[in-house]
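Annotators were shown the component list below and the corresponding predicted structure, then asked to write short factual statements about the assembly.
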Amino acid sequence: MTKRITISDVAIHAGVSKSTVSQYLNGRYDYMGQKTKEKIESAIKELKYSPNMVARSLKQKSSTTIGVIVANILHVFSTQVIRAIEDFCHEKGFHVIVCNADDNSDKEKTYIDMLRAKQVDGIIAFPTGDNVALYQGLLEEKYPLVFMDRLVDGLDIPTVLLDNYKAATLAVDLLKDYQRPAIVTSPLKENLTPRMERLIGFKNELAKHGKSLSDEYIACGEINEIQKKLTELFQLSEPPDAIFAINDRVLHEVLSFMNYQNIRIPDDVALVNVDDVSFAEFYQPALTTISQPAFEMGKKAAELLFTQIKNPQDISTRETFRFEPMVNRRKSC
Amino acid sequence: MTKRITISDVAIHAGVSKSTVSQYLNGRYDYMGQKTKEKIESAIKELKYSPNMVARSLKQKSSTTIGVIVANILHVFSTQVIRAIEDFCHEKGFHVIVCNADDNSDKEKTYIDMLRAKQVDGIIAFPTGDNVALYQGLLEEKYPLVFMDRLVDGLDIPTVLLDNYKAATLAVDLLKDYQRPAIVTSPLKENLTPRMERLIGFKNELAKHGKSLSDEYIACGEINEIQKKLTELFQLSEPPDAIFAINDRVLHEVLSFMNYQNIRIPDDVALVNVDDVSFAEFYQPALTTISQPAFEMGKKAAELLFTQIKNPQDISTRETFRFEPMVNRRKSC
DNA sequence: CTGAAAGCGCTTACAG
DNA sequence: CTGAAAGCGCTTACAG
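Structure shown to annotators:
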């Protein structure tokens, strides 16, 4: 790489001091002579000077970069959230570093530590939930931090997530004409808020309608075990006549199973899921889904982070923001 | 934020000089006394010291960060490529900044300039193709750069992409029993290598089989115009009996159209596309697809970038790497 | 209206 | 085996 041009080169070339060039770069023209300005301007052009942001960051203690830690960028919801965050940051002249924690708390910790060492101005995370002491420390330092999708108990960290109870209520409503609803879900853990809340919400809301959701009707397992769980579910003496698939990944397994077993939707069993999927409209039958406003949620998270960055003392935004799910009524129930 | 602990604090606390602490941090223990080592170690622990990477970057001229500029992170292929790159970088202790250029050359230029100002160690880009002078400049500076998915004519920049001609050949082979194949594609522009090559490859390979692809059988338009183009296509006196959908986004439109028009696959018209999609296996009928090894491609791009970072003089890797498409034979043709 | 000087938090020859 | 000094490329009081 050729030798980089620095502010000194520009200063010499323009016949002024580094300070003056710096003033110019930072738009503090208040007292700057017209001539000086022009000299600097043309020196910059001629030398093709571009300031070294690392040096600036060191001095200003801001890297104009934020970190986003998702469980896995391959999940559609995460991708949409990242896109919204990146758009927001781009407008502000910020960059975003993307990290995949893979639901692994060690990896999450490594990422948080490294991002901090790189002096990123803030972090938006889908927290694993297992690094409570670490989160707590960041909170105490007033380090700008926003959580997405998952609640961590007892921590006063602003969080953006779906109103999962509402989503469950909508699912119950969509399935109200069916007698034996079942739910299919990935493994349940306390800190996996979406799954927990959707399950609990579904159960409670069914109860309000005088229907109970017994454990047999809860098919729960890792993605690669779902087929087996579904098999068991449909071997019950009274198999379900409706299914609530808790997210898009589970939905895939359900559709695959239905297809393989020649179970017709909605005639044999009705189906609704959370997360819109690309093929929902032209699938046979078109799938009724409950979607999350992913872009708005991402944008909100970015906004919350920036208000913290601007004013780390401000405590007013340290709350939980629930977004409304939307029903896309189609043909599967 | 509380006052950050610096290397000076550690030095004072341990009763040694900053230099020695720095040696320790960088693992140069060669001549370091056992006691010194221990003192430093415990000082770091007690103070919870973590080095400021920005300061280190300034001195070392490496930010241990790379930039990835995609057209749009929402495209599945891009997401997969990013995931592979991020995994690779994470192993090396690097971070990745993700940027969406939206096929907009101004946006691309802004991103490249800003990434460079932030001293990222290299860039992997899905180039818009319209900033040739800029690319040229980076090349001359020997700035680490790898292109993905798209070829830019006349520039000796290492590029990773699918063997699109091979993909087209495979498509022709899969469709060999059909008489009037058509192709559906997003708008064609010289620098949009995948589309161009797949179209040309398809045409040429058909010719080898004694079939011609007349212009009427090329449905080409922006995603939101595809439905209209398909309508025209199927109003031909001799409508196609097979379709090659050039990518996943086009495929969605085709399936939507087929569904709406009650055209049966493969009885009325056979179908094959490039890019595997999540629902291919359980769609009715299961979709025959030609997929790209996205993860390997992303990994390769990262490897190429790192060899350039390690040795910017080395010219040996400045070539084009074509990856083999794979056929996933299912039921749609 | 502009410049000299100090400092951000590191690393790295070099001296001893 | 360890430390003093210079320097990476900026910014920012402060002086004049």
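Statements collected:
1. Chain A has twelve helices and twelve strands.
2. Chain A touches chain B through 53 residues (CB under 8 Å).
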